[in-house]
Design goal:
By secondary structure, the protein is mostly beta strands. It folds into two domains: 106 residues, Immunoglobulin-like (Sandwich); 132 residues, no CATH class. The protein is built from four helices and 16 strands. Strands 4-11-10-6-7 form a five-stranded mixed beta sheet, with no helix packed on it. Strands 3-5-9-8 form a four-stranded antiparallel beta sheet, with no helix packed on it. It has a three-stranded parallel beta sheet with strand order 12-13-16, with helices on one face. The longest helix has 11 residues. It starts with 9 loop residues before the first strand and ends in an 18-residue tail after the last helix.
């Protein structure tokens, strides 16, 4: 067994061989991973803040030490107050410099900003000069939400024709639309809401070859093709999620070349089944069927 010695050198025995190891390379315990920059932008929690003021805050640790935390907005760098006591961080990360005072805070006067969206980036700068992005947020003065109030008052019927910004996503059971119903709630108005758009692979989410590839609206996202799911979503699964969250949803139905999904699985995908005979397909002017992967 290897032993650590207090002498000027250490011996490490491997099978029947003996190697002389310099003392600075000898160790009794496995080497730990090098410390990395870590931190969290805790407030504001939402992407956008519409208010007269906001507190931008969180914590950050840097193995070289934290020189400063900057709040960058509208081309200007604002210094956050760094060094706020954080006993919780000190308990969980005692190996970092200044972990007991890892907190930072910046008070933003949003009411003084011009109407419109102001993108904010929070950046930690280490004592070695390295920069780390901690997060991004949007600050919006309340006056921005009243820019078109006169138009709406003159034509209140606009509120009956809301416009929906649809966020493209997938893998709903795995959290692909998590918090989509509230993430952009700050932007909501009488005429604007958000929703999601989700692709349904209707040529792939079938009952399989045994049932002549009939479309299955309840296709279970558990079937696998190599190391990936055959499909991430089912029609009824997404509908159920949208109803539960009261979230508008648009379905995109991928056909033609767009139905040629990655990973060949002819037992489920009728498109992949047809591709087994290239005479069934003509994706290009050269009569070439592109491979899946």
């Amino acid at each position: 067994m290897p032993r650590c010695l207090a002498s000027l050198r250490a011996c490490v025995t491997i099978r029947a061989l003996v190697f002389i190891v310099p003392p600075f390379l000898a160790a009794c315990t496995p080497h730990s991973q090098p410390l990395q920059v870590m931190g969290v932008l805790e407030t504001p929690g939402e992407e956008a803040t519409i208010a007269t003021s906001a507190v931008i805050g969180g914590w950050v640790l840097d193995p070289s030490g934290v020189d400063r935390v900057e709040v960058r907005m509208d081309g200007a760098n604002h210094a956050a107050r760094y060094g706020i006591a954080r006993r919780d961080i000190a308990r969980t990360h005692p190996d970092y410099p200044d972990s007991a005072r890892a907190g930072f805070e910046f008070k933003a006067d949003i009411d003084a900003l011009s109407s419109g969206r102001h993108a904010v980036s929070v950046v930690a700068v280490g004592r070695d000069g390295h920069e780390t992005m901690l997060g991004r947020r949007s600050l919006i003065a309340p006056s921005a939400m009243r820019l078109w109030a006169d138009r709406l008052a003159a034509a209140p019927g606009f509120a009956d024709r809301r416009f929906f910004f649809l966020m493209a996503t997938s893998a709903i059971p795995q959290g692909g639309a998590k918090d989509a119903e509230k993430q952009y709630g700050a932007y909501y108005s009488a005429t604007m809401r958000t929703g999601i758009t989700v692709p349904i692979l209707y040529l792939r989410t079938t009952k399989g070859a045994a049932d002549d590839w009939v479309f299955d609206p309840d296709f279970q996202p558990i079937h696998r093709c190599k190391d990936r799911l055959v499909a991430e979503d089912s029609l009824n699964g997404v509908i159920g999620y949208a109803v539960q969250k009261k979230l508008p949803v648009q379905f995109s139905l991928n056909g033609g070349v767009w139905a040629d999904s990655s990973c060949d699985t002819p037992e489920w995908d009728v498109n992949d089944h047809l591709e087994q005979d290239v005479d069934n397909c003509q994706w290009t002017q050269d009569n070439i069927v592109y491979p899946d992967d």
